[in-house]
Amino acid sequence: MGSVGSISKNNGAMSERRRYTRYAGDGLMVWVDGRIYPAIDVSLGGVRLSGVQPVKRGAVVSLKLIPCHGEAMMLGLAAIAQGQVLAVRPSGTRLAFVSPRYSLAKTVVRHARTQHLDGVFSQPVG
């Protein structure tokens, strides 16, 4: 189950199709190799981290999604997962979740709902 989007041409125009809807990462931090990075966006298939991480494309890394808003932070509702590095660019590092578990999906859905209820964003990202 990965968040690898495919790109197709429609009458010369490029369109991007994704398996999962991406949501803004506001209020979500990601722990990778002992360092914490802010999430730019997240979906049930993967996450994009701010900045360039010292990892190579194709590598599989352990990570932890840490919600940092309200009750979630107090209750320690972080989810442990593994992610495969899809891209490392100045705009961020993209990771696809590898064999995601229910707890990861629950954390992502809770994050999206919390943002929506708090009015942080009105629609999914791109």
Give the SSE map:
Layout lengths: L5 E5 L2 E5 L5 E2 L3 E5 L2 E8 L3 E4 L10 E8 L2 H6 L3 E11 L2 E7 L3 H17 L8
Antiparallel strand pairs: 1-2, 3-5, 4-5, 4-7, 5-6, 6-9, 7-8, 8-9
Could you please describe the fold and organization of this structure?
This protein is an alpha+beta fold and 126 residues long. The protein has helices at 70-75, 102-118; strands at 6-10, 13-17, 23-24, 28-32, 35-42, 46-49, 60-67, 79-89, 92-98. It has one domain (22-120): Beta Barrel (Thrombin, subunit H). The chain has two helices and nine strands. A six-stranded antiparallel beta barrel has the order 4-5-6-9-8-7. The model is unreliable at 1-15 and 120-124 (pLDDT under 50). It comes from Magnetospirillum gryphiswaldense. This is PilZ domain-containing protein.
